[in-house]
Amino acid sequence: MLEETTEIIDEATVSMQKATEHFESELVKIRAGKANPTMLDGITVDYYGTPTPINQVGNLSAIDARTLTIQPWEKNMLQPIERAIIAANIGINPQNDGNIIRLFLPPLTEERRKDLVKKSNGEGEQAKIAIRNIRRDAIEQVKKAQKDGLSEDEAKEAEDEIQSITDAHIILIEKYLAAKEKEIMSV
Q: How many Å apart are CA 135 and CA 85, to the nearest integer?
């Protein structure tokens, strides 16, 4: 293959890999019955006027399958952490005992599990759309290169390679979705 098509394919591969990794990070945030400190990723605390990720103002840990604890590094951060968790609206009420904040995760109902599966599928669909958009852009670049003198055979070969990379990433997303659904629906 020519250097030009190789560059287009490499760029598309890297972009699809990033989309898949983003999808994985979004799936981790969806609660599947087990307490996981990564569930709190994305929550920011007002740390002396600066929005700071919650994992940078205290120690997060999972005591058991249903309980998370947050041990702030400064006692005066208990209230701001508690307010941030409530404001994040993650469906968990923080319990503050003056030293540590405990988050007790309620057991998932069947209806809630189905909602979480729907949310997971929605994230999967967004990831697939992103990957298909990357494929479309890469194929457009190949067609533009073909107008600029790339042979038809080279263009066809590049398009086939882009399609096979796209198919591989879509299959990977489906695999992650199936595993997440199994994890959510297992009691």
A: 39
